[in-house]
Amino acid sequence: MREELIRLCSDAEGHLEAHYSDMLTAFDNPLDHLGRFPYYSNYINLSKLEYELLVRYVPGVAPSRVAFVGSGPLPFSSLVLAARHLPGTAFDNYDRCGAANDRARKLVRADEDLRARMSFHTADVANLTDELGKYDVVFLAALVGMAAEDKAKVVAHLGRHMADGAALVVRSAHGARGFLYPIVDLEDIRRGGFDVLAVYHPDDEVINSVIIARKADAHANGLHNGHAHARGAVPIVSPPCKCCKMEANTLEKREEMATKELSV
């Protein structure tokens, strides 16, 4: 039932993005009107979060070439990352749907810089091999490989063909949000040949969890038979839950009151 709900969510998002992509294309410069999309602020926040996590957990990352797998007809993530955070990076966007790529391509037609740095390819990630080795960072959209076993296969395929040391940014879900998006098993990422560096579970309007991983060096990290050895605990860098904040505030107030009573 949960997988069917995720598929329904995927279909609905596809129709929503296609509708707004067509609407934006009617403007002379579609990028000037991205704010008309109802969840635009979510993409602004998510892209900022992913960039900050990359900078923090993959030191020295300065990607010259990035792949976004599952970009869709309205590739907000690539657009925001390219325009706001990675102004010197080339973005290759991959989607299995040719119509989605045709829509996405029209969105950057009036922006000379983004038109030069963003390309759109109709392909299934399972058919990409040598191409994956040229990217410094690969972003994996939440709805690529909706069933758990499919997501694991995609990650394993990326692990076989990405360059050693390249970063992988995977969108996942946590808790009840797993009824909208697939939950990615960290062990599947490790088995795919990656070191998991950090996990972020948001508690605000951003929906997707973010997993930051790095392709393990087969020689340096002891990769054996396709399994990377885990090295220490994975940092969970999510903000504290609201209940924890309330308890902390209550405890702080009690300590203040006790201090005042003692001083009296």
Automatic annotation (TrEMBL):
Keywords: S-adenosyl-L-methionine, Transferase. GO terms for biological process: nicotianamine biosynthetic process. InterPro entries: Nicotian_synth (IPR004298), SAM-dependent_MTases_sf (IPR029063). GO terms for molecular function: nicotianamine synthase activity. PROSITE patterns: NAS. Coiled coil: none annotated. The keyword rRNA processing does not apply. It comes from the Eukaryota. Its EC number is 2.5.1.43. It catalyses: 3 S-adenosyl-L-methionine = nicotianamine + 3 S-methyl-5'-thioadenosine + 3 H(+). Belongs to the nicotianamine synthase (NAS)-like family. PANTHER family: NICOTIANAMINE SYNTHASE 2 (PTHR32266:SF10), NICOTIANAMINE SYNTHASE 3 (PTHR32266). Synthesizes nicotianamine, a polyamine which serves as a sensor for the physiological iron status within the plant, and/or might be involved in the transport of iron. This is Nicotianamine synthase. The lineage of its organism: Eukaryota, Viridiplantae, Streptophyta, Embryophyta, Tracheophyta.
